[in-house]
UniProtKB/TrEMBL annotation:
Gene3D superfamilies: Tetracycline Repressor, domain 2 (1.10.357.10)
Source lineage: Bacteria, Bacillati, Bacillota, Bacilli, Bacillales
Pfam families: TetR_N
Name this protein carries in UniProt: HTH-type transcriptional regulator
DNA-binding region boundaries: 23-42
Molecular-function GO term, any one: DNA binding
Origin species: Neobacillus bataviensis LMG 21833
Length: 283
C-alpha cells in the first residue's frame, strides 16, 4: 500500500513538474513519509519511474493483446482505437508526462523500457492488420502499422496536451475509416520489414516457465482468498504439470484477466499457452 501511495503521489508531482525537476525529497514530503521509507520501496527515482511505466504499459498491452485475439473482425479496428484512447484519457496525467519526457530523456533504461513496450504494441498491431486484411496488404503492412501508430500519437495529443473534449466513439469511427482507406488504396510502401528491423531493438526474452513461476508465486502471496487466487494456483499447477484441456485453461485465464494485479501475468500466460491452446480455440 505504501508503494502504491508513493507511485500515485509521485505521478501528481511528475505531471506538474516533470521527471527531472522532481526530487526524491519533494516526493517524500508530498507523501508525508521519510526518505528511508521511500528507499524501502524503490532504490532510486529512476526505479520509481520504471515502475510507473510498467504499471501503465502493462495494462494497455494486456488489454490490447486480449482484444486483438478475441474481438470480432467487424469490430476489431474500432475496439482497438477506442481502447487506446480510453486508456490515454483515463490516465491522462501519466500519458502527458510519458509523451513529453520520452522525447527528451537521456536515461538509457527508460529508453529501453519504452522500446520494449513499443515492440509489443507493434506486434499486436501487425497481428490485427493480418487478421483484417491478409494478403491484401502484404507489401504495405509495415507502412500501415506505422500509420496506425502515427494516428495514436497525433490524436492522443489533442486531449493530453490541449484538453480538447473528444467523443471517443466519433474519433474511433473516423480513424477506422482512415485506416481502411489506407489499407485498400496504399500501393507505394516506404517501411519494409527489413527497414523496420533496422531501427527496432532486440526484445528481451520474457515469459519462460521459470519466470512465470516466480511471478505467479509473488501474486499468490500478495492476494487474499478469491476466485482469482484459486485460478492462479491452478494455473501454476498447469504450468508445472500440464493436464487440463484448452477450454479449462482459457477459463482460468479469463478469471484473472480483469484483476488489477493479474493483468500482466494473464498476458504472459496467454503467450506461453498460446502455441497449443489456440489450435483449439482463440485465447
Amino acid at each position: 500500500m505504501k508503494k502504491q501511495l508513493i507511485m500515485e503521489k509521485a505521478l501528481e508531482l511528475f505531471a506538474k513538474q516533470g521527471f527531472e525537476a522532481t526530487s526524491v525529497q519533494q516526493i517524500t514530503d508530498y507523501c508525508g513519509i521519510s526518505k528511508g521509507a521511500f528507499y524501502l520501496s524503490f532504490k532510486s527515482k529512476d526505479e520509481l519511474i520504471i515502475a510507473l511505466i510498467d504499471q501503465f504499459m502493462m495494462q494497455i498491452i494486456a488489454d490490447i493483446d486480449y482484444l486483438v485475439k478475441n474481438a470480432k473482425d467487424s469490430q476489431l479496428l474500432y475496439d482497438f482505437y477506442y481502447a487506446i484512447y480510453h486508456s490515454f484519457q483515463k490516465h491522462s496525467d501519466f500519458a502527458k508526462v510519458l509523451m513529453k519526457e520520452q522525447s527528451q530523456t537521456f536515461n538509457k533504461d527508460l529508453i529501453l523500457k519504452m522500446q520494449y513496450y513499443d515492440k509489443l504494441l507493434e506486434n499486436n498491431i501487425l497481428l490485427m492488420i493480418e487478421r483484417l486484411y491478409g494478403d491484401e496488404v502484404k507489401a504495405t503492412k509495415y507502412d500501415l502499422m506505422y500509420c496506425i501508430k502515427g494516428f495514436m500519437n497525433m490524436y492522443s495529443q489533442l486531449f493530453v496536451f490541449y484538453n480538447v473534449p473528444l467523443d471517443l466513439q466519433v474519433l474511433s469511427e473516423s480513424l477506422v475509416e482512415k485506416t481502411t482507406l489506407l489499407a485498400r488504396h496504399m500501393t507505394v510502401p516506404f517501411v519494409t520489414e527489413e527497414l523496420s528491423q533496422m531501427f527496432t531493438q532486440p526484445m528481451k526474452e520474457e515469459g519462460t516457465k521459470e519466470q512465470l513461476g516466480k511471478i505467479i508465486e509473488q501474486k499468490i502471496d500478495e492476494m487474499e482468498e478469491s476466485i482469482e487466487k484459486e485460478s492462479l494456483l491452478l494455473l501454476r499447477q498447469e504450468l508445472l504439470e500440464p493436464s487440463q484441456p484448452p477450454a479449462v485453461v482459457k477459463g482460468l485465464l479469463e478469471n484473472i484477466r480483469n484483476h488489477p494485479h493479474c493483468k500482466w501475468i494473464s498476458y504472459l500466460l496467454r503467450q506461453y499457452f498460446y502455441t497449443w491452446i489456440d489450435k483449439e480455440q482463440p485465447m
